[in-house]
Amino acid sequence: MQAYMKSQMPFHGVPSPLFKKVCKVVFADIELPDSESWKENVLDLWRNAKFREERYGALFLAGHTRARAFQNMDAMNTYEEIMVTGAWWDYVDNIASHRVGSILACHPKPMQRLMLGWSKSSDIWKRRTSILCQLGAKEKTDLDFLYQCIEPSLNSNEFFLRKAIGWALRQVAWRDPKEIIRYVKKNRELLSPLSKREALKNVIKMGRIRVIP
Predict the structure, then answer these.
(1) Which residues of the chain fall short of a pLDDT of 70?
(2) How far apart (Å, rounded) are the C-alpha atoms in residues 148 and 140?
(3) Is 8 helix (H, G, I), strand (E, B) or coil?
(4) Please, what's the largest Cα pairwise distance for the chain?
(5) Distance CA 2, CA 52 (A)
(6) Do 86 and 79 contact (CB within 8 A), yes or no?
(7) pLDDT at 211
(8) Mean pLDDT of the chain
(9) Residue 206: its pLDDT value, please?
(10) What is the pLDDT of residue 210?
(11) Spatial distance between the Cα atoms of 191 and 40, rounded to a whole number of angstroms
């Protein structure tokens, strides 16, 4: 597990299904009376973790059903710390798609302002989060907002940004392949080969196009 994740932090080696069962038992009776208590517990686990699964436990607690009321703009400082200090795709993608995405859905205007700021950040994980935060939005995806978040990273050589761009576009392509074909053709000179390949992977499988523009 450590080799696969290229992780300096060691793993206990607990398979994902068992890990989830353990978390459910460990957090079954946890008291989260307010947002400050929730943040304190999440960050205590995160900051003091000696093994990677312990940090995954912090992510599990962050999304606990008892923490649903705390998923608002006040939580973003906590998530920002996790993303910046974790600085790897397994942490960041979990937070971006599940936690940040749900806050965006409930608080679109302030979150869009924040994400547009992150899209230009010097931190690649903030940029990746801004690109991926609508992964679960489905038909409610704001395409103009997505394209604005992608635009600052179009010229980046960073693998994790190129991959994120393709992934975000591919999610839209499931529902609106014509739009993604249009977008890729329009930006064929700016999008990396990786981003185009990822964006059109399902479109090609569906037979909508044969050759990547």
Answers:
(1) 208, 210-211
(2) 16
(3) coil
(4) 55
(5) 9
(6) no
(7) 64
(8) 95
(9) 73
(10) 65
(11) 41
C-alpha to C-alpha distance for 98 and 170, rounded to whole angstroms:
18
pLDDT attached to residue 22: 96
For the chain, how many residues are written? 213
Sequence-ordered alpha helix ranges (H) in the chain: 2-5, 16-26, 35-48, 52-62, 76-86, 89-94, 101-106, 108-118, 124-132, 143-150, 159-173, 177-186, 193-205
Which string of DSSP letters, residue by residue, matches 154-206?
A: TT---HHHHHHHHHHHHHHHTT-HHHHHHHHHHTTTTS-HHHHHHHHHHHHHT
> Is residue 92 a contact partner of residue 60, using CB atoms and an 8 Å limit?
no
Which of 41, 59, 46, 54 is closest to 95 using CA atoms? 59
Question: Measuring CA to CA, how many Å separate 170 from each of 95, 116, 135?
Answer: 19, 20, 10
- Whether residue 152 contacts residue 117, with contact meaning beta carbons closer than 8 Å, is answered with no
CA distances (Å), origin 130, targets 7, 145, 148 = 24, 10, 10
Separation CA 152–CA 120 (nearest Å): 6
Residues 6+ apart with CB under 8 A from 119: 126, 127, 130, 131, 148, 149, 150, 151, 152, 153
Are 134 and 104 within 8 A, CB to CB?
yes
